[in-house]
Write a structure and sequence with these properties.
Elements lengths: L1 H29 L9 H26 L4 H35 L4 H25 L11 H5 L4 H31 L9 H9 L1
Length: about 200
């Protein structure tokens, strides 16, 4: 009983500390001087994402130190991972689309919600289809209800996030490796004078 209470205290304390740390990091490091322009929803989502993502690493540290029971650690790992997947696939895309429609395009709230739900559903379908083409495990295509429920398993979600995430990281890394030297090569070049060119021609 004491081990379970200790594990719960560690989980709540670490989650709260990481949430406050993510909020302070956004306020004092990423958005210094302009944090007052950030809405409460955005700062809360950033702090929550930071806390859950860093919490996964913290759980590995807890397992190494052996400060919590294995059963509680496994339960907390599953809860943390499900929260990260829900944030990544459900909450954040919908908030981004809704914010763009309501603030950038000036759409009414009701219409913005409806369009956001439709576009979000299209994105989830594209996420599922692209995962099949990119090598993620396929779902039972028998058409039964249990086969469709296979879409909502942790293995399907994490495998597609991993495949698509690695693909996007590869594309962005390749683009950055080519684009940055192309745009900044002039910083490493020096001006060649006419005298230097004439000296080279005489050689």
């Amino acid at each position: 009983m004491s081990g379970g209470v200790l594990g719960a205290l560690f989980a709540v304390g670490s989650a709260g500390g990481l949430f406050l740390g993510g909020h302070q990091f956004l306020k004092h490091s990423l958005c210094t001087g302009s944090h007052h322009e950030i809405s409460t929803l955005v700062s809360t989502l950033f702090a929550g994402t930071f806390a859950l993502s860093a919490g996964l690493l913290l759980l590995v540290l807890y397992e190494i130190l052996g400060v919590v029971q294995e059963d509680f650690l496994r339960l907390h790992w599953r809860f943390n991972l499900w929260c990260v997947v829900l944030l990544l696939l459900v909450v954040l895309p919908f908030v981004h689309i809704y914010t763009f429609l309501s603030q950038s395009l000036g759409a009414p709230p009701g219409r913005a919600v409806a369009v956001s739900l439709f576009l979000h559903a299209c994105l989830l379908y594209a996420f599922y289809r692209f995962g099949d083409k990119a090598g993620a495990p396929s779902v039972d295509s028998s058409g039964t209800f249990s086969g469709w429920l296979g879409l909502f398993t942790m293995a399907q979600a994490v495998s597609r996030v991993g495949v698509i995430g690695v693909t996007m990281l590869g594309v962005l890394s390749g683009f950055g490796a080519v684009n940055f030297p192309y745009c900044n090569l002039s910083l490493f070049m020096r001006h060649v004078t006419d005298a230097e060119m004439a000296a080279l021609e005489r050689r």
